[in-house]
């Protein structure tokens, strides 16, 4: 590592780079963090800098890309955190509706028993995770027949459980 490069050529531009960082972040503390992250990357990738080219432009590009990547990470984290909040809300609804859920489960079991055996077996095997070819082999029928039976079972369930559909 060439610390002289950093000290003599990069750090002399710190005030200018801090101004650039502040334009991106609109916050002094965040600007200082962005500058620090940028300087770490400059140190890490200094071998890629071509001597005699626009050093400030090169560092600025690193800063801009760092800022954009940080924004993307934050957006992803917020999306993830809102998903957690949604799932906690869902847990609350599930626990409040436990009695209703039990009734619904009983009705689904009742409807499942009304599906003709020829469709029920294929559907349940698929539901349990078997592949089409495995079901076909077990039942001794072509894969296309298995797919048709599963599709038919789904249609029967959709028709009989249409009251639970949420459009």
Features:
167 residues; mainly alpha; 0% strand
What report would you give on this structure?
80% of the residues lie in helices and 0% in strands. By secondary structure, it is mostly helical. Helix 2 packs across helix 3, helix 2 packs parallel to helix 4 and helix 3 (28-44) crosses helix 4 (55-96). It is elongated. The N and C termini lie far apart (61 Å). The mean pLDDT is 81.
Quickly describe the structure.
This protein has 167 residues and is mainly α.
Architecture blueprint of SSEs:
Elements lengths: L2 H8 L3 H12 L2 H17 L10 H42 L1 H17 L2 H11 L4 H8 L3 H18 L7
Helix pairs in contact: 2-3, 2-4, 3-4, 6-8, 7-8
Q: How are helices and strands ordered from N to C?
A: HHHHHHHH
Report the portion of residues in β strands.
under 5%
What profile does the largest beta sheet have? Answer: none
The shape is: elongated
Rg is 30 Å
